Fold these 2 entries.
Entry 1:
Amino acid sequence: MILETNALGQPIGTEVPGWEGAAAPEGTELAGAHVVLRPLTQHDAPDLFEAYGADKDGADATYLPYGPYENVAALSRQITDFSVGPDLFYCIRDARTDQALGQASYLRINPEAGSIEVGNIQYGRALQRTRGATEAMVLMMAHAFDDLGYRRYEWKCNALNAPSCRAAERLGFTYEGTHRQALVVKGRNRDTAWYSILDCEWPALKAAFASWLDDNNFDAEGRQKRPLSHFREEKGVISA
Protein backbone atom coordinates (compact mmCIF):
# COMPACT_ATOMS: atom_id res chain seq x y z
CA MET A 1 0.00 0.00 0.00
CA ILE A 2 1.33 3.43 -0.97
CA LEU A 3 0.97 5.87 1.92
CA GLU A 4 -0.02 9.44 1.22
CA THR A 5 1.22 12.38 3.20
CA ASN A 6 -0.28 15.76 3.89
CA ALA A 7 1.42 19.16 3.55
CA LEU A 8 3.02 18.60 6.95
CA GLY A 9 4.62 15.35 5.84
CA GLN A 10 2.34 13.25 8.04
CA PRO A 11 1.03 9.93 6.69
CA ILE A 12 -2.73 10.01 6.04
CA GLY A 13 -5.34 7.48 4.95
CA THR A 14 -6.14 6.94 1.30
CA GLU A 15 -8.93 9.05 -0.13
CA VAL A 16 -12.38 7.47 -0.58
CA PRO A 17 -13.79 9.37 -3.58
CA GLY A 18 -17.50 10.11 -3.50
CA TRP A 19 -18.13 8.33 -0.20
CA GLU A 20 -21.57 9.22 1.17
CA GLY A 21 -22.12 6.23 3.44
CA ALA A 22 -23.82 2.87 3.06
CA ALA A 23 -27.53 2.10 3.35
CA ALA A 24 -29.06 0.60 6.48
CA PRO A 25 -30.46 -2.93 6.00
CA GLU A 26 -34.25 -2.99 6.06
CA GLY A 27 -35.04 -6.68 6.31
CA THR A 28 -35.14 -7.50 2.62
CA GLU A 29 -35.80 -11.19 1.96
CA LEU A 30 -32.60 -12.92 0.85
CA ALA A 31 -33.33 -15.93 -1.35
CA GLY A 32 -30.88 -18.54 -2.58
CA ALA A 33 -31.07 -21.96 -4.19
CA HIS A 34 -30.96 -23.77 -0.84
CA VAL A 35 -32.06 -21.32 1.85
CA VAL A 36 -34.22 -18.23 2.24
CA LEU A 37 -33.62 -15.59 4.91
CA ARG A 38 -36.55 -13.58 6.23
CA PRO A 39 -36.76 -11.20 9.21
CA LEU A 40 -37.12 -13.17 12.44
CA THR A 41 -40.56 -12.93 14.10
CA GLN A 42 -42.52 -14.64 16.86
CA HIS A 43 -44.04 -16.83 14.16
CA ASP A 44 -40.66 -18.54 13.83
CA ALA A 45 -40.34 -19.55 17.50
CA PRO A 46 -42.01 -23.01 17.35
CA ASP A 47 -40.11 -24.06 14.21
CA LEU A 48 -36.79 -22.78 15.52
CA PHE A 49 -37.31 -24.49 18.87
CA GLU A 50 -37.76 -27.74 16.98
CA ALA A 51 -34.64 -27.06 14.89
CA TYR A 52 -32.52 -26.35 17.96
CA GLY A 53 -33.98 -29.35 19.78
CA ALA A 54 -31.66 -31.73 17.95
CA ASP A 55 -28.87 -30.29 20.10
CA LYS A 56 -29.74 -32.47 23.10
CA ASP A 57 -26.90 -31.37 25.38
CA GLY A 58 -27.00 -27.66 24.56
CA ALA A 59 -23.47 -27.61 23.14
CA ASP A 60 -24.46 -25.31 20.29
CA ALA A 61 -25.35 -22.54 22.77
CA THR A 62 -22.18 -22.72 24.88
CA TYR A 63 -20.60 -19.63 23.32
CA LEU A 64 -23.83 -17.70 22.74
CA PRO A 65 -25.10 -15.15 25.29
CA TYR A 66 -28.51 -16.89 25.28
CA GLY A 67 -29.89 -20.41 25.18
CA PRO A 68 -30.30 -23.31 25.33
CA TYR A 69 -34.06 -22.83 25.55
CA GLU A 70 -36.24 -24.87 27.89
CA ASN A 71 -39.39 -24.36 25.82
CA VAL A 72 -40.94 -22.37 22.99
CA ALA A 73 -41.97 -19.60 25.39
CA ALA A 74 -38.34 -19.02 26.41
CA LEU A 75 -37.29 -18.76 22.78
CA SER A 76 -40.23 -16.48 22.06
CA ARG A 77 -39.14 -14.14 24.86
CA GLN A 78 -35.64 -14.04 23.41
CA ILE A 79 -37.02 -13.15 19.97
CA THR A 80 -38.89 -10.28 21.63
CA ASP A 81 -35.60 -9.07 23.13
CA PHE A 82 -33.97 -9.32 19.70
CA SER A 83 -36.73 -7.22 18.15
CA VAL A 84 -36.26 -4.21 20.45
CA GLY A 85 -32.52 -3.95 19.84
CA PRO A 86 -30.63 -2.26 17.00
CA ASP A 87 -29.69 -5.53 15.29
CA LEU A 88 -31.54 -7.07 12.33
CA PHE A 89 -32.24 -10.78 12.84
CA TYR A 90 -33.06 -13.27 10.12
CA CYS A 91 -34.66 -16.68 10.30
CA ILE A 92 -32.97 -19.10 7.89
CA ARG A 93 -35.40 -21.48 6.20
CA ASP A 94 -35.06 -24.33 3.73
CA ALA A 95 -35.86 -22.94 0.26
CA ARG A 96 -37.72 -26.12 -0.72
CA THR A 97 -39.60 -27.16 2.43
CA ASP A 98 -39.74 -23.82 4.31
CA GLN A 99 -38.44 -25.64 7.40
CA ALA A 100 -36.78 -23.29 9.89
CA LEU A 101 -33.08 -24.14 10.16
CA GLY A 102 -31.45 -21.38 12.17
CA GLN A 103 -30.82 -17.67 12.60
CA ALA A 104 -28.24 -14.96 11.93
CA SER A 105 -28.17 -11.20 12.24
CA TYR A 106 -26.60 -7.98 11.10
CA LEU A 107 -25.22 -6.05 14.07
CA ARG A 108 -22.87 -3.15 14.81
CA ILE A 109 -24.51 -1.53 11.80
CA ASN A 110 -22.64 1.69 10.99
CA PRO A 111 -23.72 3.07 7.59
CA GLU A 112 -21.72 6.27 8.04
CA ALA A 113 -18.46 4.33 8.32
CA GLY A 114 -19.59 1.58 5.95
CA SER A 115 -19.05 -1.14 8.53
CA ILE A 116 -21.40 -3.98 9.44
CA GLU A 117 -21.06 -7.27 11.34
CA VAL A 118 -22.63 -10.68 10.91
CA GLY A 119 -23.30 -12.50 14.16
CA ASN A 120 -25.78 -14.15 16.52
CA ILE A 121 -25.39 -17.18 14.26
CA GLN A 122 -27.17 -20.27 15.53
CA TYR A 123 -27.63 -23.19 13.15
CA GLY A 124 -29.82 -26.18 13.89
CA ARG A 125 -28.16 -29.54 13.35
CA ALA A 126 -29.97 -29.99 10.02
CA LEU A 127 -28.26 -26.88 8.63
CA GLN A 128 -24.76 -27.38 9.97
CA ARG A 129 -22.05 -28.33 7.43
CA THR A 130 -24.41 -28.08 4.45
CA ARG A 131 -24.43 -26.04 1.25
CA GLY A 132 -27.27 -24.03 2.76
CA ALA A 133 -25.12 -23.09 5.76
CA THR A 134 -22.51 -21.51 3.48
CA GLU A 135 -25.12 -20.03 1.17
CA ALA A 136 -26.80 -18.21 4.08
CA MET A 137 -23.53 -16.45 4.86
CA VAL A 138 -22.93 -15.66 1.18
CA LEU A 139 -26.40 -14.14 0.84
CA MET A 140 -25.78 -11.84 3.80
CA MET A 141 -22.34 -10.82 2.52
CA ALA A 142 -23.67 -10.13 -0.98
CA HIS A 143 -26.51 -8.01 0.36
CA ALA A 144 -24.12 -5.97 2.51
CA PHE A 145 -21.54 -5.36 -0.21
CA ASP A 146 -23.52 -5.39 -3.46
CA ASP A 147 -26.87 -3.94 -2.41
CA LEU A 148 -26.10 -1.74 0.58
CA GLY A 149 -22.60 -0.54 -0.26
CA TYR A 150 -20.63 -1.48 2.87
CA ARG A 151 -16.83 -1.25 2.88
CA ARG A 152 -16.14 -3.59 5.80
CA TYR A 153 -17.87 -6.81 6.88
CA GLU A 154 -17.01 -8.12 10.35
CA TRP A 155 -17.14 -11.43 12.19
CA LYS A 156 -16.45 -11.67 15.92
CA CYS A 157 -16.58 -14.67 18.22
CA ASN A 158 -15.40 -16.02 21.53
CA ALA A 159 -11.70 -16.68 21.03
CA LEU A 160 -12.19 -20.12 22.61
CA ASN A 161 -14.88 -21.03 20.07
CA ALA A 162 -12.64 -23.00 17.70
CA PRO A 163 -15.46 -24.00 15.29
CA SER A 164 -16.48 -20.35 14.82
CA CYS A 165 -12.87 -19.29 14.26
CA ARG A 166 -12.44 -22.04 11.67
CA ALA A 167 -15.69 -21.01 9.98
CA ALA A 168 -14.50 -17.41 9.68
CA GLU A 169 -11.21 -18.51 8.15
CA ARG A 170 -12.93 -20.90 5.75
CA LEU A 171 -15.24 -18.12 4.56
CA GLY A 172 -12.29 -15.89 3.76
CA PHE A 173 -12.27 -13.54 6.73
CA THR A 174 -8.93 -12.10 7.82
CA TYR A 175 -8.01 -12.41 11.50
CA GLU A 176 -7.29 -8.99 13.02
CA GLY A 177 -6.49 -9.85 16.61
CA THR A 178 -8.10 -10.69 19.94
CA HIS A 179 -9.61 -8.21 22.37
CA ARG A 180 -8.83 -9.47 25.85
CA GLN A 181 -11.54 -9.42 28.53
CA ALA A 182 -13.92 -7.86 26.04
CA LEU A 183 -17.14 -9.17 27.59
CA VAL A 184 -18.67 -11.16 30.42
CA VAL A 185 -21.03 -13.77 28.98
CA LYS A 186 -23.09 -16.09 31.18
CA GLY A 187 -20.88 -15.05 34.10
CA ARG A 188 -17.62 -15.94 32.37
CA ASN A 189 -14.86 -13.91 30.76
CA ARG A 190 -14.88 -13.67 26.98
CA ASP A 191 -11.87 -12.73 24.90
CA THR A 192 -13.17 -11.77 21.45
CA ALA A 193 -11.46 -12.71 18.18
CA TRP A 194 -11.99 -10.15 15.38
CA TYR A 195 -12.16 -10.95 11.65
CA SER A 196 -13.11 -8.93 8.58
CA ILE A 197 -13.64 -8.91 4.83
CA LEU A 198 -13.17 -5.66 2.88
CA ASP A 199 -15.08 -4.53 -0.19
CA CYS A 200 -11.92 -4.77 -2.33
CA GLU A 201 -11.66 -8.46 -1.37
CA TRP A 202 -15.29 -9.26 -2.07
CA PRO A 203 -15.31 -9.70 -5.90
CA ALA A 204 -12.75 -12.52 -5.89
CA LEU A 205 -14.33 -14.11 -2.82
CA LYS A 206 -17.79 -13.88 -4.42
CA ALA A 207 -16.46 -15.75 -7.47
CA ALA A 208 -14.97 -18.44 -5.22
CA PHE A 209 -18.30 -18.93 -3.46
CA ALA A 210 -20.11 -19.21 -6.80
CA SER A 211 -17.71 -21.93 -7.97
CA TRP A 212 -17.98 -23.86 -4.71
CA LEU A 213 -21.79 -23.68 -4.58
CA ASP A 214 -22.16 -24.76 -8.23
CA ASP A 215 -23.91 -28.10 -8.71
CA ASN A 216 -20.90 -29.36 -10.67
CA ASN A 217 -18.88 -29.25 -7.46
CA PHE A 218 -21.13 -31.81 -5.75
CA ASP A 219 -21.70 -35.48 -6.44
CA ALA A 220 -25.03 -37.32 -6.55
CA GLU A 221 -24.96 -37.73 -2.74
CA GLY A 222 -24.38 -34.02 -2.20
CA ARG A 223 -20.73 -34.34 -1.22
CA GLN A 224 -18.34 -31.61 -2.28
CA LYS A 225 -15.71 -32.51 -4.85
CA ARG A 226 -13.39 -29.64 -3.99
CA PRO A 227 -13.30 -27.58 -0.78
CA LEU A 228 -13.98 -23.88 -0.65
CA SER A 229 -10.29 -23.28 0.08
CA HIS A 230 -9.45 -24.62 -3.39
CA PHE A 231 -11.62 -22.02 -5.08
CA ARG A 232 -10.42 -19.23 -2.79
CA GLU A 233 -6.83 -20.00 -3.80
CA GLU A 234 -7.86 -20.29 -7.44
CA LYS A 235 -9.43 -16.81 -7.33
CA GLY A 236 -6.48 -15.35 -5.47
CA VAL A 237 -8.29 -14.81 -2.17
CA ILE A 238 -5.68 -14.61 0.55
CA SER A 239 -6.73 -14.24 4.17
CA ALA A 240 -4.58 -14.21 7.27
Entry 2:
Amino acid sequence: MPGEVYEKKLLDRVADALVAGFAAIADRLSPGWSTRNRGRLDEWRLMLYTLNRSPLGLAGVALVTFFLFLALFGPRIAPLSYDSQIFLCDPDARLAPPGTVVNIPDNPFCRQLGLKPGNFTMLLGGDDYGRDLWSRILYGARTSLIVAILVMLVGPWIGIALGLIAGYYGGMIDELIMRITDVFLAFPGLILAIAFSAVLPYRLQDFMEAHPLVADVLRVLFAVKPKDEPALASLLAVIVALWLVWWPSYARLVRGMVLSARENTYVEAARALGIPTWRILAVHILPNIAGPILVMLTIDFGGVILTEAGLSFLGLGAVPPLADWGRIIYDGSQYFPDSWWLVFFPGLMIFLTVFGFNLLGDTLRDILDPKIRRSIEFKVKKTKARQTAMTGEVTQ
Protein backbone atom coordinates (compact mmCIF):
# COMPACT_ATOMS: atom_id res chain seq x y z
CA MET A 1 0.00 0.00 0.00
CA PRO A 2 1.68 3.26 -1.12
CA GLY A 3 0.70 5.28 1.96
CA GLU A 4 2.38 2.95 4.47
CA VAL A 5 5.87 2.72 5.90
CA TYR A 6 7.46 0.34 8.40
CA GLU A 7 7.91 1.56 11.94
CA LYS A 8 11.25 -0.11 12.57
CA LYS A 9 13.27 -0.87 15.65
CA LEU A 10 17.05 -1.03 15.76
CA LEU A 11 17.01 -4.80 15.29
CA ASP A 12 14.72 -4.38 12.29
CA ARG A 13 17.35 -2.23 10.63
CA VAL A 14 19.93 -4.93 11.37
CA ALA A 15 17.57 -7.46 9.77
CA ASP A 16 17.22 -5.23 6.70
CA ALA A 17 21.01 -5.04 6.42
CA LEU A 18 21.33 -8.83 6.66
CA VAL A 19 18.71 -9.45 3.98
CA ALA A 20 20.21 -6.74 1.75
CA GLY A 21 23.67 -8.23 2.17
CA PHE A 22 22.42 -11.69 1.24
CA ALA A 23 20.61 -10.27 -1.80
CA ALA A 24 23.78 -8.48 -2.92
CA ILE A 25 25.79 -11.70 -2.72
CA ALA A 26 23.04 -13.60 -4.59
CA ASP A 27 23.01 -10.92 -7.31
CA ARG A 28 26.75 -11.33 -7.81
CA LEU A 29 26.34 -15.07 -8.25
CA SER A 30 23.17 -14.80 -10.33
CA PRO A 31 22.46 -11.33 -11.79
CA GLY A 32 18.89 -10.20 -11.19
CA TRP A 33 18.24 -12.74 -8.42
CA SER A 34 16.88 -10.16 -5.96
CA THR A 35 14.46 -8.80 -8.57
CA ARG A 36 13.12 -12.26 -9.35
CA ASN A 37 12.81 -13.13 -5.65
CA ARG A 38 11.53 -9.84 -4.25
CA GLY A 39 8.55 -11.56 -2.60
CA ARG A 40 10.80 -14.09 -0.91
CA LEU A 41 13.06 -11.34 0.43
CA ASP A 42 10.04 -9.51 1.85
CA GLU A 43 8.94 -12.69 3.61
CA TRP A 44 12.42 -13.12 5.10
CA ARG A 45 12.29 -9.56 6.41
CA LEU A 46 8.94 -10.24 8.04
CA MET A 47 10.34 -13.41 9.61
CA LEU A 48 13.19 -11.44 11.17
CA TYR A 49 10.76 -8.72 12.28
CA THR A 50 8.71 -11.43 14.01
CA LEU A 51 11.83 -12.69 15.76
CA ASN A 52 12.75 -9.17 16.85
CA ARG A 53 9.38 -8.79 18.57
CA SER A 54 9.69 -12.02 20.57
CA PRO A 55 11.69 -11.55 23.80
CA LEU A 56 11.72 -15.30 24.40
CA GLY A 57 12.88 -15.89 20.83
CA LEU A 58 15.73 -13.41 21.23
CA ALA A 59 16.65 -15.10 24.52
CA GLY A 60 16.74 -18.43 22.68
CA VAL A 61 18.97 -16.97 19.96
CA ALA A 62 21.31 -15.56 22.63
CA LEU A 63 21.55 -18.89 24.49
CA VAL A 64 22.11 -20.89 21.30
CA THR A 65 24.72 -18.40 20.08
CA PHE A 66 26.50 -18.61 23.44
CA PHE A 67 26.54 -22.41 23.24
CA LEU A 68 27.83 -22.40 19.66
CA PHE A 69 30.58 -19.96 20.60
CA LEU A 70 31.73 -22.16 23.47
CA ALA A 71 31.55 -25.29 21.34
CA LEU A 72 33.43 -23.86 18.37
CA PHE A 73 36.12 -21.91 20.23
CA GLY A 74 36.09 -23.63 23.63
CA PRO A 75 39.13 -25.86 23.04
CA ARG A 76 41.10 -22.80 21.92
CA ILE A 77 40.11 -20.51 24.79
CA ALA A 78 40.25 -23.20 27.49
CA PRO A 79 43.04 -22.34 29.96
CA LEU A 80 44.12 -26.01 30.20
CA SER A 81 43.64 -29.27 28.37
CA TYR A 82 40.72 -31.51 29.29
CA ASP A 83 43.07 -34.07 30.90
CA SER A 84 45.55 -31.81 32.76
CA GLN A 85 45.74 -33.13 36.32
CA ILE A 86 46.85 -30.16 38.38
CA PHE A 87 46.82 -32.08 41.66
CA LEU A 88 49.99 -33.89 40.58
CA CYS A 89 51.75 -30.54 41.00
CA ASP A 90 49.56 -29.03 43.74
CA PRO A 91 47.46 -31.41 45.90
CA ASP A 92 45.12 -28.53 46.77
CA ALA A 93 43.68 -28.69 43.25
CA ARG A 94 41.77 -31.90 44.02
CA LEU A 95 38.08 -31.05 44.60
CA ALA A 96 39.07 -27.39 44.80
CA PRO A 97 36.09 -25.01 45.27
CA PRO A 98 35.38 -22.34 42.63
CA GLY A 99 37.89 -19.50 42.68
CA THR A 100 40.69 -21.54 44.25
CA VAL A 101 44.19 -20.29 43.42
CA VAL A 102 46.76 -23.07 43.08
CA ASN A 103 50.51 -22.72 42.77
CA ILE A 104 52.22 -24.69 40.04
CA PRO A 105 55.95 -25.17 40.65
CA ASP A 106 58.51 -24.62 37.94
CA ASN A 107 59.82 -28.11 37.20
CA PRO A 108 60.09 -30.37 34.12
CA PHE A 109 57.34 -32.74 35.32
CA CYS A 110 54.70 -30.00 35.57
CA ARG A 111 55.77 -28.53 32.23
CA GLN A 112 55.40 -31.97 30.67
CA LEU A 113 51.79 -32.00 31.92
CA GLY A 114 51.19 -28.75 30.02
CA LEU A 115 51.06 -26.60 33.15
CA LYS A 116 52.75 -23.21 33.23
CA PRO A 117 54.53 -22.32 36.47
CA GLY A 118 52.96 -19.75 38.75
CA ASN A 119 49.54 -19.12 40.23
CA PHE A 120 46.49 -20.47 38.42
CA THR A 121 42.88 -19.64 39.33
CA MET A 122 40.42 -22.52 39.00
CA LEU A 123 37.43 -20.40 38.04
CA LEU A 124 34.77 -23.10 38.55
CA GLY A 125 36.85 -25.33 40.81
CA GLY A 126 38.46 -28.70 40.21
CA ASP A 127 37.27 -32.30 40.01
CA ASP A 128 38.46 -35.40 41.85
CA TYR A 129 41.54 -35.63 39.61
CA GLY A 130 42.41 -31.97 40.06
CA ARG A 131 41.37 -31.08 36.52
CA ASP A 132 40.11 -27.57 35.82
CA LEU A 133 36.31 -27.78 35.63
CA TRP A 134 35.96 -24.69 33.41
CA SER A 135 38.32 -26.18 30.83
CA ARG A 136 36.46 -29.50 30.85
CA ILE A 137 33.10 -27.74 30.42
CA LEU A 138 34.46 -25.90 27.37
CA TYR A 139 35.67 -29.16 25.83
CA GLY A 140 32.36 -30.77 26.78
CA ALA A 141 30.50 -28.13 24.76
CA ARG A 142 32.43 -29.26 21.67
CA THR A 143 31.49 -32.88 22.40
CA SER A 144 27.79 -32.03 22.71
CA LEU A 145 27.77 -29.97 19.52
CA ILE A 146 29.52 -32.54 17.34
CA VAL A 147 27.33 -35.40 18.61
CA ALA A 148 24.18 -33.35 17.99
CA ILE A 149 25.27 -32.32 14.48
CA LEU A 150 26.22 -35.85 13.44
CA VAL A 151 22.97 -37.27 14.78
CA MET A 152 20.77 -34.59 13.18
CA LEU A 153 22.54 -34.93 9.83
CA VAL A 154 21.49 -38.58 9.51
CA GLY A 155 18.81 -39.76 11.95
CA PRO A 156 15.94 -37.37 11.14
CA TRP A 157 16.60 -37.55 7.40
CA ILE A 158 16.07 -41.31 7.45
CA GLY A 159 12.62 -40.66 8.85
CA ILE A 160 11.96 -37.77 6.43
CA ALA A 161 12.87 -39.94 3.42
CA LEU A 162 10.73 -42.85 4.63
CA GLY A 163 7.84 -40.49 5.42
CA LEU A 164 7.99 -38.97 1.94
CA ILE A 165 7.95 -42.41 0.30
CA ALA A 166 5.18 -43.76 2.53
CA GLY A 167 2.93 -40.72 2.15
CA TYR A 168 3.41 -40.33 -1.59
CA TYR A 169 3.06 -43.95 -2.72
CA GLY A 170 0.60 -45.22 -0.10
CA GLY A 171 -0.69 -48.80 -0.36
CA MET A 172 1.54 -51.66 0.70
CA ILE A 173 4.66 -49.48 0.81
CA ASP A 174 2.94 -47.16 3.27
CA GLU A 175 1.74 -50.06 5.41
CA LEU A 176 5.19 -51.68 5.53
CA ILE A 177 7.04 -48.48 6.47
CA MET A 178 4.46 -47.46 9.07
CA ARG A 179 4.37 -50.87 10.74
CA ILE A 180 8.17 -50.83 11.05
CA THR A 181 7.85 -47.32 12.49
CA ASP A 182 5.26 -48.57 14.99
CA VAL A 183 7.66 -51.28 16.15
CA PHE A 184 10.33 -48.70 16.93
CA LEU A 185 7.81 -46.36 18.57
CA ALA A 186 6.54 -49.20 20.77
CA PHE A 187 9.82 -49.11 22.73
CA PRO A 188 10.99 -46.04 24.66
CA GLY A 189 13.70 -44.31 22.63
CA LEU A 190 16.07 -44.04 25.58
CA ILE A 191 15.83 -47.80 26.28
CA LEU A 192 16.64 -48.60 22.66
CA ALA A 193 19.52 -46.11 22.70
CA ILE A 194 20.90 -47.75 25.85
CA ALA A 195 20.68 -51.19 24.24
CA PHE A 196 22.42 -50.11 21.03
CA SER A 197 25.05 -48.06 22.90
CA ALA A 198 25.94 -51.06 25.04
CA VAL A 199 26.62 -53.48 22.16
CA LEU A 200 28.11 -51.22 19.48
CA PRO A 201 31.40 -49.88 20.96
CA TYR A 202 33.44 -53.06 20.44
CA ARG A 203 32.41 -53.39 16.80
CA LEU A 204 33.01 -49.71 16.18
CA GLN A 205 36.42 -49.95 17.84
CA ASP A 206 37.40 -52.59 15.27
CA PHE A 207 35.95 -50.39 12.52
CA MET A 208 38.03 -47.40 13.62
CA GLU A 209 41.19 -49.50 13.77
CA ALA A 210 40.52 -50.74 10.24
CA HIS A 211 39.82 -47.19 9.01
CA PRO A 212 42.37 -44.82 10.57
CA LEU A 213 41.09 -41.89 8.52
CA VAL A 214 37.72 -42.08 10.29
CA ALA A 215 39.48 -42.04 13.66
CA ASP A 216 41.58 -39.03 12.63
CA VAL A 217 38.52 -37.08 11.46
CA LEU A 218 36.67 -37.81 14.71
CA ARG A 219 39.75 -36.82 16.72
CA VAL A 220 39.86 -33.44 15.00
CA LEU A 221 36.10 -32.88 15.33
CA PHE A 222 36.03 -33.70 19.04
CA ALA A 223 39.37 -31.92 19.71
CA VAL A 224 40.96 -34.84 21.56
CA LYS A 225 44.56 -36.00 21.71
CA PRO A 226 45.80 -38.89 19.52
CA LYS A 227 46.31 -41.10 22.57
CA ASP A 228 42.58 -40.82 23.36
CA GLU A 229 41.35 -41.91 19.91
CA PRO A 230 40.24 -45.38 21.16
CA ALA A 231 37.89 -43.69 23.65
CA LEU A 232 35.97 -42.14 20.76
CA ALA A 233 34.43 -45.53 19.91
CA SER A 234 31.96 -45.11 22.77
CA LEU A 235 30.87 -41.69 21.48
CA LEU A 236 30.54 -43.07 17.95
CA ALA A 237 28.37 -45.86 19.39
CA VAL A 238 26.05 -43.23 20.92
CA ILE A 239 25.83 -41.44 17.57
CA VAL A 240 24.93 -44.62 15.68
CA ALA A 241 22.45 -45.61 18.40
CA LEU A 242 20.69 -42.26 18.14
CA TRP A 243 20.57 -42.61 14.36
CA LEU A 244 18.61 -45.81 14.86
CA VAL A 245 16.08 -44.38 17.32
CA TRP A 246 15.66 -40.79 16.14
CA TRP A 247 13.89 -41.34 12.81
CA PRO A 248 10.42 -42.82 13.63
CA SER A 249 8.79 -39.59 14.84
CA TYR A 250 9.92 -37.80 11.66
CA ALA A 251 8.59 -40.59 9.46
CA ARG A 252 5.15 -40.32 11.06
CA LEU A 253 5.10 -36.50 10.92
CA VAL A 254 6.23 -36.25 7.30
CA ARG A 255 3.95 -39.05 6.13
CA GLY A 256 0.90 -37.23 7.49
CA MET A 257 1.83 -33.96 5.80
CA VAL A 258 2.63 -35.64 2.47
CA LEU A 259 -0.79 -37.34 2.42
CA SER A 260 -2.30 -33.86 2.32
CA ALA A 261 0.30 -32.19 0.09
CA ARG A 262 0.21 -34.81 -2.66
CA GLU A 263 -3.40 -33.86 -3.49
CA ASN A 264 -2.51 -30.24 -4.22
CA THR A 265 -2.81 -28.86 -7.73
CA TYR A 266 0.90 -28.12 -8.15
CA VAL A 267 1.74 -31.79 -7.46
CA GLU A 268 -0.84 -33.00 -9.98
CA ALA A 269 0.55 -30.52 -12.53
CA ALA A 270 4.07 -31.82 -11.94
CA ARG A 271 2.88 -35.38 -12.49
CA ALA A 272 1.12 -34.34 -15.71
CA LEU A 273 4.35 -32.79 -16.99
CA GLY A 274 6.15 -36.10 -16.44
CA ILE A 275 8.51 -34.78 -13.76
CA PRO A 276 10.33 -37.68 -12.03
CA THR A 277 8.94 -38.76 -8.66
CA TRP A 278 12.15 -37.99 -6.78
CA ARG A 279 12.06 -34.43 -8.12
CA ILE A 280 8.41 -33.98 -7.13
CA LEU A 281 9.25 -35.11 -3.61
CA ALA A 282 12.44 -33.08 -3.26
CA VAL A 283 11.48 -29.87 -5.09
CA HIS A 284 7.71 -29.57 -4.92
CA ILE A 285 6.53 -31.36 -1.76
CA LEU A 286 9.39 -31.16 0.75
CA PRO A 287 9.88 -27.36 0.59
CA ASN A 288 6.15 -26.85 1.19
CA ILE A 289 6.12 -28.98 4.34
CA ALA A 290 9.50 -27.78 5.62
CA GLY A 291 8.13 -25.45 8.34
CA PRO A 292 7.04 -28.06 10.92
CA ILE A 293 10.10 -30.17 10.12
CA LEU A 294 12.44 -27.24 10.76
CA VAL A 295 10.74 -26.52 14.10
CA MET A 296 11.07 -30.16 15.12
CA LEU A 297 14.72 -30.28 14.05
CA THR A 298 15.52 -27.20 16.15
CA ILE A 299 13.85 -28.54 19.30
CA ASP A 300 15.34 -32.01 18.78
CA PHE A 301 18.84 -30.52 18.53
CA GLY A 302 18.58 -29.75 22.22
CA GLY A 303 16.93 -33.13 22.80
CA VAL A 304 19.93 -34.93 21.32
CA ILE A 305 22.27 -33.00 23.62
CA LEU A 306 20.15 -33.97 26.62
CA THR A 307 19.91 -37.63 25.56
CA GLU A 308 23.65 -37.89 24.91
CA ALA A 309 24.38 -36.38 28.33
CA GLY A 310 21.98 -38.89 29.88
CA LEU A 311 23.71 -41.82 28.20
CA SER A 312 27.11 -40.53 29.34
CA PHE A 313 25.74 -40.17 32.87
CA LEU A 314 24.78 -43.85 32.70
CA GLY A 315 28.31 -44.74 31.60
CA LEU A 316 27.42 -45.51 27.97
CA GLY A 317 28.72 -42.36 26.27
CA ALA A 318 32.00 -40.57 26.79
CA VAL A 319 34.58 -42.46 28.85
CA PRO A 320 37.51 -40.94 30.78
CA PRO A 321 39.46 -38.87 30.10
CA LEU A 322 37.11 -37.38 27.46
CA ALA A 323 35.22 -34.29 28.58
CA ASP A 324 31.44 -34.57 28.40
CA TRP A 325 28.82 -32.74 30.44
CA GLY A 326 26.95 -35.92 31.36
CA ARG A 327 30.13 -37.72 32.35
CA ILE A 328 31.29 -34.76 34.45
CA ILE A 329 27.98 -34.87 36.35
CA TYR A 330 28.29 -38.62 36.88
CA ASP A 331 31.83 -38.32 38.24
CA GLY A 332 30.86 -35.37 40.42
CA SER A 333 27.71 -37.03 41.80
CA GLN A 334 29.89 -39.21 44.00
CA TYR A 335 31.03 -36.10 45.89
CA PHE A 336 27.66 -34.30 45.98
CA PRO A 337 26.61 -32.19 47.90
CA ASP A 338 30.01 -31.37 49.43
CA SER A 339 31.54 -30.67 46.00
CA TRP A 340 28.34 -29.24 44.55
CA TRP A 341 30.07 -27.38 41.74
CA LEU A 342 30.89 -30.64 39.93
CA VAL A 343 27.17 -31.19 39.37
CA PHE A 344 25.79 -27.66 39.33
CA PHE A 345 27.87 -26.02 36.60
CA PRO A 346 27.69 -28.77 33.91
CA GLY A 347 24.01 -29.25 34.77
CA LEU A 348 23.45 -25.52 34.33
CA MET A 349 25.11 -25.66 30.91
CA ILE A 350 22.85 -28.53 29.82
CA PHE A 351 19.78 -26.68 31.08
CA LEU A 352 20.64 -23.39 29.36
CA THR A 353 21.52 -25.08 26.07
CA VAL A 354 18.39 -27.24 25.85
CA PHE A 355 16.23 -24.34 27.07
CA GLY A 356 17.70 -22.11 24.36
CA PHE A 357 16.92 -24.57 21.57
CA ASN A 358 13.37 -25.02 22.89
CA LEU A 359 12.78 -21.27 22.95
CA LEU A 360 14.21 -20.93 19.45
CA GLY A 361 12.05 -23.79 18.17
CA ASP A 362 8.87 -22.28 19.64
CA THR A 363 9.71 -18.94 18.07
CA LEU A 364 10.38 -20.55 14.69
CA ARG A 365 6.87 -21.99 14.86
CA ASP A 366 5.54 -18.43 15.01
CA ILE A 367 7.98 -17.09 12.43
CA LEU A 368 7.01 -19.73 9.87
CA ASP A 369 3.29 -19.16 10.38
CA PRO A 370 2.06 -16.78 7.60
CA LYS A 371 -0.87 -15.54 9.72
CA ILE A 372 1.41 -14.44 12.54
CA ARG A 373 3.80 -12.81 10.08
CA ARG A 374 0.95 -10.81 8.57
CA SER A 375 -0.26 -9.72 11.99
CA ILE A 376 3.25 -8.49 12.72
CA GLU A 377 3.24 -6.63 9.40
CA PHE A 378 0.07 -4.75 10.36
CA LYS A 379 1.52 -3.87 13.76
CA VAL A 380 4.77 -2.42 12.43
CA LYS A 381 3.19 -0.38 9.66
CA LYS A 382 1.73 3.10 9.98
CA THR A 383 0.45 5.53 7.39
CA LYS A 384 2.58 8.43 6.27
CA ALA A 385 -0.34 10.78 6.85
CA ARG A 386 -0.63 9.74 10.49
CA GLN A 387 3.14 9.99 10.92
CA THR A 388 3.06 13.54 9.47
CA ALA A 389 0.16 14.56 11.75
CA MET A 390 1.94 13.23 14.83
CA THR A 391 5.09 15.07 13.83
CA GLY A 392 3.13 18.31 13.40
CA GLU A 393 1.54 17.95 16.85
CA VAL A 394 4.93 17.47 18.45
CA THR A 395 6.28 20.55 16.63
CA GLN A 396 3.42 22.71 17.85
